[in-house]
Design brief:
Blueprint: H1 2-12, E1 16-22, E2 27-34, H2 37-53, E3 60-65, E4 72-74, H3 77-90
Antiparallel strand pairs: 1-2, 1-3, 2-4
């Protein structure tokens, strides 16, 4: 029943998620969905620990209601700009 309720809230965009933005690598991660903020807060330390073990740096953690379309968003804008610059000089 709890899973059904959580999924229903997620469909409506009312479920709780842990959003973690990292500076290196420059990514945004979403963990969830959760039925309530208390559950999301309780799981937050484990996600932080996992990302730090993988070498992520400068984490900004937010617990909020949202409906992420993608669970991992990679900001590749710096690399894309560098590729365009290299391409302009080599081709």
């Amino acid at each position: 029943m709890k899973e059904f309720l959580t999924n229903s809230l997620d469909i409506l965009g009312l479920a709780w998620w842990v959003e973690i933005k990292t500076e290196n690598p420059r990514c945004t991660y979403y963990f969830g969905p959760f039925l309530d903020e208390v559950s999301a807060q309780a799981h937050k330390p484990g996600y932080v620990e996992d990302l730090e073990k993988e070498g992520a740096q400068n984490l900004v953690i937010t617990v909020k209601r949202c409906k992420p379309q993608v669970l991992t968003v990679v900001d590749d804008s710096e690399n894309a700009s560098l590729r365009r610059l290299v391409s302009a000089y080599t081709g």
